[in-house]
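User: Modeling request: complex.
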Amino acid sequence: MATTTASFTLSSSDIAASPVNVSTSSTLYKAGVTTGLEQCDIARRILLTSETSILDLISAQTAGATGGAYTIDKANKVYICNSSTSDTDFVLITINAEPIGRLYAGDWMFFPWGPDHATNSDIRITAASQTSTVTIDYMVIGQRNEA
Amino acid sequence: MATTTASISIASPDIISGMGLNYSKSKVLCKAGVCTGLEKIQSGTREYLATGAVELLDESVVTTDGANKVYIKNLSTDATEYFEIAIQSEVLGRLWAGDWMFIPWSAGGSNNITVNPSVATSMKLEYVVVHE
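Assistant: Request completed. Predicted assembly structure:
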């Protein structure tokens, strides 16, 4: 088994009357056990300004298909970062056409991903109004095709 | 304007053979499309004594299509326990014991965030929303 940790901090000295400091760290385990996740995919995708339609970023894939499947009952984690630098440009993250949120330049997200194959739970991105090339870095740490 | 910074680091000495993984990213949280910092925050903890999906965050509290951010952590220490996290009817995934998540949240269109605890034995979570 591998040992992977994901740490998070949120800090501000002036968003509230008292300083805000949230800090946490977790070891990334498989579903329901304390065995570390063992599979990792890391990639970068660059979207040209002409690529304004909705695009698949991470596919849940069909069970048994080449590359295996991610499933709803596992402990998959997804990291996505919009590494662009233009403040006005954003990518909309959607799952099964459900809008999750907008990642503006430099913004990142980290979340559990449990695709429901009864619907199309691929993770999609739309950069509908970008003014320059968009760079998306992403990572999946999970249990693809594991029983 | 306020200055709020969110940082992540993902590290592993052995998830990729012969190559350590050591990634980090830090970002000042800005309003949509500008360099002005987000100015509002709310946070809390919740305890659940029953299973079934319940609303954690109502989309009406934040600006639609803003650069809102949400942090949620499952405070359980039992590895078998999880919260199923959903936005409207779309399940994102299961947040297992000790796991945390940080996502942008468009809100609007009834995109409420719901949680569904796996057991009815006092599961707890904490959350923070930073928004416009």
